[in-house]
Structures are given as C-alpha cells and as structure tokens.
TrEMBL record:
Keywords: ATP-binding, Nucleotide-binding, Transcription, Transcription regulation
Gene Ontology biological process terms, A to Z: regulation of DNA-templated transcription
Protein name per Swiss-Prot or TrEMBL: Sigma 54-interacting transcriptional regulator
Keyword flag Nucleotide-binding: yes
Organism: Pelotomaculum isophthalicicum JI
Ranges of residues in domain Sigma-54 factor interaction: 154-383
Keyword Isomerase (UniProt): no
Gene Ontology MF term list: ATP binding; sequence-specific DNA binding
Length: 457
C-alpha cells in the first residue's frame, strides 16, 4: 500500500519535495526506504538514490526515522550524523497513517518546519493521508525544537567542568531558578538550552533575552508587553517575552547590565508570578522558569548599589560557574571535534580534524574569547587549509592580551591564574608539571597540593 502511495504522489509531488532545502526520507512500516529527495544528497554528500531499497533499521538504528518506526511516536529535534555524512543534523520525524493503518514514517532534517508545511499541502491533496497528530501543532513544535541543544552537545572532561556539568544536569530535573556565571564565550547559553531541553518544560518555549543588547527604555516592554495606545506609537497590543515563555523557560542573558528600576519589576514577577503589560490594568499570571546568566561580578555590583541584593538572592538559588577555556586546555581536542561538523556545514568543506602540532598550538594560547574565539579560529582555519586536516600553519591566533590585570584581584585568584598559565605553557603531563613548578618557584608536591585545593573549591 505504501509503495502505491509514494507512486501516487506523482511527478509534481516529487518535484515539490526535491525543491525543498531540507533532506527528506520516506520509509515503509518495515523500515525499507522508499524515497530520498535531492537535498538529502546535497546535505549528506552521497547519492540518496543508493539509499532507496535499503533498510533504515539496519543502516541507521539510532536515527529519528528508526525511532518513529519502533515507537510509532513523533520525534523532534534529534541530533545525529546521517549515514555517510560528515555533518550533524537535527531531525524531526513523523509516523504516517492511511485511515487507521500505520504505513510508514517520514523524516525531515535541517530546517524541518518548512518541509512539514510542504507535506501538509500534499496531505490536503490526498484526503486519506493524515499525520498522527495535528499538523499545525507539529509545525510549531518543530520550530521550537530544531535549534535546541542538550547535554550531548556539551563536551568536556576536565574536573572543574565536569562538576559544573553534573550540577546543571541535576538542576535540569527541577524547576529551580538558575544563575549561570562565567566569562563571555564560555557557553552559558548552551548550558541554559541544555537545562531547558532536559527539563519537563522541554516541549514548551525557550525565550532568550539579552539584557545588554536592548536599550533600558525598551526592555520593560520587551519583558512585559504593552496595550494598544499605551504610548505614542503603540498601534497594537504587544505580548511580552515573559508571557510568550509561559509554561516554558526565559533565559535572561547579561542580567548584570539590567537597569535598577527594571530589576524591581523583575523581582515582583519572580516573587508573585504576575505582572501587568504597560498601559494595562489586568494582572497576568505566568508559570515561567527563569535562567539568568552574567559575566560580571554581581557581588561587586551590589556593593556599588548597581544590583539589588533581594533580586540577587532570588536569582542565585542554584549558581553554576562555567570555567573559562584556559582552565580546560585538555578539553580543546574534544571541543574542536564537536565544533567541526557545524563549521563544515557553514564553510561547505569536509575537515576531518586537526594535526597534533595544531592542537599543541591551540593549547598554548591564552583564549581570552573562550569557546567563541576557538570556534572562530577553527572556522578561519577550515576555510584556509589546503587538505582535509588542519595544520599548525593554518591556525591564526590573535596576540595575547596584556597579562597584567586591569583591576586588583585577590592573591588566591592571582595564584590560580599563574598556575593555570604555567600548565598551559608547559602542559599537564608529569614533565610539564615539573617545569611549571620550577617556573613558579615551588616544589612539585606543593603544586599538586594547590591543584587539589583548586579542584575542591
């Protein structure tokens, strides 16, 4: 029956599917692939027609299409690498029924929502085809899930980072407010999305607001919305981000840059779960989880009367410190391996990895821009390198910034910084630690004691 269905779509239907920028695979209820569109071949860099006739249960037992065939349930935002591809994709897959009979499944990868719309139009033309739940709801769900990250996207094995990751995993199972702390470029948004996507709110909206990027006079209306006519230019009602994130999560990035007056209003929402739109009289009740992030020292801002201490306590229910990349030098090969598939897709090349000398060069850099800087360096190297492997000469690093701190720091922090720099320079091996201890003017035993203390802090 499914073969006749695929055939009945006809040349026009195939032309529509082939024109889609998303990769599409159709399989019958036994897992036999019946159709692959042209975008499948372009994304996977392999002939999609060679997949037709193969069984997806054998060729890709962990993919989204296989999961749907085994469970009969839709799958949203599954991250994986298709067979023979060098690029990671996000897949959305759905069971297909004719009448009440389950006849197969379909998968869309990359920007799935538009492809689902195309199939929705085909479904209207074929009244006996229906998706297993409301198509418009699935389209909205695909839009929410396509760009999500979970903890499988976060790479790291150093002890300090594993502690942060373990805490984030634990808090994701709760509804507690989270404060993510760390330098710019350390991956705070990635942590926020992973926490949301592992929580019970995973199928609800995740709304990101950068408090530093929106002018203070517009941030209130961004948060809470406004009623029509509430001020000049308010020609229609606007729904704020807290209301849009109802039942989901709002991520307040750069919370330390928020205006004091707005901090008071945010505190009220956190305490009562209610607010009013600008110009409105009605109290709006929301159930929105808050994850905040900052690269600033909130305690110093409180001392300078630039941040409310009561808001600090409301936000600081669970605080997660994300260490900078210079304290995670051993993680660079793992992070690079995770970043390369995305970079390959962006630059249109297949870079397999980095030579050892290139990794050594990366390990000796100070990384003031953290993972964001590493990603930019790798993208430039991927664009300029001649072969499939990045060599040391392909890597262009910015000169190190001045090592002198711009402000006074504690001796303990300065000691941590000097130990970190010494290990970056000489390496984490036993020989490297001996050289680091010699450069620091301490014994190897003292160095180990200090490293244990840093890890325990």
């Amino acid at each position: 029956m499914f073969k006749s269905l695929v055939k009945s779509i006809g040349q026009l239907g195939h032309a529509v599917l082939d024109s889609s920028p998303e990769g599409i695979l159709l399989a019958d209820d036994e897992g036999n692939i019946m159709y692959a569109n042209k975008s499948y071949s372009l994304i996977c860099r392999s002939d999609g027609q060679k997949r037709v006739g193969k069984n997806i249960l054998k060729t890709n037992p962990h993919g989204a299409l296989t999961e749907v065939l085994l469970t009969g349930q839709p799958v949203f935002g599954k991250k994986h690498i298709p067979l023979g591809a060098h690029t990671e994709v996000f897949s959305n897959a759905f069971p297909i029924h004719i009448g009440d009979q389950f006849v197969g499944a379909i998968v869309f990868f990359r920007e799935a929502a538009e492809a689902i719309n195309v199939l929705g139009e085909l479904a209207k033309a074929r009244k006996d085809i229906r998706f297993s739940s409301n198509i418009s709801e699935q389209i909205e769900q695909a839009r929410y899930d396509f760009t999500r990250y979970d903890f499988s996207n976060i790479a790291g094995k150093t002890q300090c980072f594993k502690k942060s990751l373990a805490l984030a995993r634990r808090v994701s199972r709760t509804d507690s407010t989270v404060l993510l702390r760390g330098e710019s470029g350390t991956g705070k948004q990635l942590f926020a999305e992973a926490i949301h996507n592992t929580s019970t709110r995973r199928y609800q909206p995740f709304i990101n607001v950068n408090c530093a990027a929106i002018p203070d006079n517009l941030l209130e209306s961004e948060f809470f919305g406004y009623e029509k006519g509430s001020f000049t230019g308010a020609g229609q009602q606007k729904i704020g981000t807290f209301e849009l994130a109802n039942q989901g999560t709002i991520f307040l990035d750069e919370i330390g840059d928020m205006d004091l007056r707005l901090q008071a209003k945010l505190l009220q929402v956190l305490q009562s779960g209610t607010f009013r739109r600008l110009g409105g009289t009605k109290e709006i009740k929301v159930n929105t989880r808050v994850i905040a992030a900052t690269n600033r020292n909130l305690e110093e801002l409180i001392a300078k009367d630039l941040f409310r201490i009561d808001l600090y306590y409301r936000l600081n229910v669970v605080s997660i410190e994300i260490p900078p990349l210079r304290e995670r030098i051993d993680d660079i090969p793992l992070i690079a391996r995770n970043l390369l598939p995305k970079i390959n897709c962006r630059v249109g090349r297949v870079i397999k990895g980095l030579e050892d000398e290139a990794l050594v060069k990366l390990a000796n850099h100070h990384w003031p821009g953290n993972i964001r800087e590493l990603e930019n360096v790798l993208e430039k190297a991927s664009t300029l390198c001649d072969g499939e492997w990045i060599m040391a000469e392909d890597i262009c690093l910015s000169p190190l910034p001045s090592q002198m701190p711009e402000s006074i720091v504690s001796l303990e922090e300065l000691e941590k910084s000097m130990i970190s720099r010494a290990l970056q320079k000489f390496g984490p091996s036993l020989a490297g630690k001996k050289e680091a201890a010699r450069a620091l003017g301490i014994s190897l035993t003292t160095l180990y004691n200090k490293l244990r203390k840093i890890q325990d802090d």
